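Long-time lurker. I teach an intro course on protein structure, and each term I like to show students one example going from raw sequence to a predicted 3D structure in token notation. This year I'd like something fresh instead of my usual example. Would anyone be willing to generate the tokens for the chain below so I can use it in lecture? Attribution to the forum is fine with me.
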Amino acid sequence: MNAVNGTWSKRCDKKLFVYSSAIESPLSPYTIHLPVPESYEHLTGKVRKTLEFVYQQCNDSFDWILKCDDDTFIVMDNLRHMLAGLDPQKPAYLGFRLNPAFGKYDEYVPRGYMSGGAGYVINSRALHDVVNTGFKRGACREDGGDEDVEMGKCLDAAGVPMHSTLDSEGKETFHLQSLHYHLTLKNETVLQQPPKDALNSGPWGEKCCSNYPVSFHYVKPVEMYMFEYLLYNASVHMSDNRDSGHL
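-- Reply from a regular --
Happy to contribute to a lecture. Here you go:
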């Protein structure tokens, strides 16, 4: 929480860190407690209750809501730019789109769903629709299963359209893995093909990522501070090589 709080989330208009009421959470005006056990197996229940809480308590105070993990780094400036041209009153669902045709969920989410680890974004109208239609119809589990798949089911049942987050060159802006993974395989060889569950067939490996990335997953706390420095503090002197002398 400290790394997220001290880096990218400073640029959010409002942020919430969600904890189970069964454990002690850090003292912070940004934390809320929900009656869901604190474990990965109950992430669906936690996210559902969070969305219901936001809908009931703050639905009139925001246009967009981002859900992401505590090891996701978000470049808020790029996300704001992406969302600037969209109408928050027309339902929308954005993120790294996964193709369920390669998994066991294709009969439930025929359009695919957005990766939870990469983070996904819905607007106020989509939140209204998923709470009042998807959840009430029982289109997804109240708890259990894979959270991003279950939310995909309910958003699909509510008729919330997906929007592409590829840039003008067809490159990804949301990333479901770490930057290192997207650039190379674990054995350091260049990744030639996208993962089989990625819906898009854009470039991977050395040319994997947009010049205007929105998110990376599996980012360690120390790496968040590195991202923060490189993105918002470091600069590069651009000079004409003819005037730089011999190096």
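Some talking points for your students: The chain has one domain: 2-167+214-232. The first strand starts at residue 17 and ends at 20.
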